[in-house]
Fold this sequence. Notes:
heterodimer; A: Formate dehydrogenase/DMSO reductase fold; 72% helix; B: 2 domains; 9 helices; 17% strand
Amino acid sequence: MHAEWGWLAAIYLFLGGLGAGAMAYAALFELSGRRYEGDTCPEVCPVTLVGSTVAGPLVAAGVLLLIFELGAGLREPWRIPLMYTHPDSVMTWGVWILTIFIPVAFLYGFLELMHVYPGAWSALTARAAFLRNLRLRPIKRIVAAVGGVLALAVATYTGVLISEVGHAVPFWSTPLVPFLPIPTLPVLFLISALSTGEALTIDLAATISSRGQAPRGRREHFIHLGLITGEAVLLGQLLAHAFLEGEAAAQSARDILIGPHSIVFWVFIMVLGFIIPFIGHVYAAGRGRHQPVTGLVSGISLIASGLFLRYLVIVSAVHAFL
Amino acid sequence: MSTPDFSRRRFLGLALAGGASASLAVQVKKLPDVHARLAPVGGDRQKEVVEARYGLVIDTNKCTGCQACVKACNERNDLPSDLSYIHGRVKGDQHLRWFLMVQCQHCADPPCATVCPTNATYVRDDGVVLIDEKLCVGCKYCMYACPYDARIFDQERGVADKCWLCLDWVLAGGEPACVHACIPGARIFGRLDDPDSTVSQLVASGRARPLRPEFGTQPAVLRYVIDDPAEQSTRGA
């Protein structure tokens, strides 16, 4: 089979994961109350501000890219609403999840902005009287809770979508545990989404906004080390199982390890996605906070490798041998 | 002075007419979608009730890999030379080489229909799986979901496409183009609901079997006669 999906689909899966991960972290900080703690979030909390405002635009941009990947749907867009109509299809679930997630994410971003800029909020309430009695923080908590759950669904869905092809592309449906019908990819993509989301909100946003005095807190770095390690273990397990399964799955694994995709794997995923951010986070965990260099380098390398991970999984598809 | 003016006008008129007829010719050459081609023989999606169960047996002992089926199919369906509903694989080893020609197996439980977000793929009562092109958005999900790799993408229309068993010919009492064109007679077409037909007897005798039934898609139309011992011991096909 010719590779039908390429970079566009990889970028879409990546943006879906990144937006969902950013949203999940913003919701976590909001719901746990850490957004309002001075030592983790001085003055304005960069984690919730960036996480909530970028989530909607990122996922919406991914959906736009997905539309450009369509054939007849791009030329005759009135066919696109048909994608809501077949509940047996995982893609239909995804279209529904995204349709609910995007407005919730935009609403959360708006509420967070209003909370950060009270001047804008009072200007708005001066014009719209019915908003005057609203209290921002409780509403924001509800929206964050809904958005957080939806974010986990979006992140998992990107993996479910491609693992659902079953026997057709054995590598994509490689099970998490042998003989159990739970595929690895949804879990791998969920962890990767959380890792890129944390890279964006904590490694990058929190480090940049505090001008070299990143918020203290060892916990984030240990959590992130766990995510990076978990991702590496899952990816190794995926490749090992693919070799065990043999045939087309083993062909995919060979292509990744020693074949045409080996540079993407060893350089852009192993070095860029695991080794560099692991060292950066060990250093940050030791000091209790990111230095500007460790924050920027591990944030950028993690986000970039998240994109390469999706690309690698898409292009390494090998159809079942007949 | 008037002559060149007249001739220029005439030339312009001729050029316009030529252009119009050329574009018309292009439009005529482009085949209408499967449903429009089925309309004259009553193949409408809603009102279809057919008792027939079609069967197409490919005898790999007779197949020489000559590609006549591929060429006939491409000709019939106006496909470019680099795309085909039928793809061939060379099997066996250096001592015993044989050919496996694969196309849509017309499954009873087709994963391409399950994953389709717009419900464009459906199974007819006679077992034939069709795509309703008007519903297809061209997301290409079905191309990944088909374990037989039987789907191609029609760039011109932006939709997924596959073997439709030349259903207009079949409903009119004929046979698919690939069967008609097969030089060694390796393709046998008939009705599985008729116990006396050659295909029914091949299936009943156990010689003709579905390809890779472990995929679980329950191929309904295509059956293969495969006598390669290596193939049977490893896959039980």
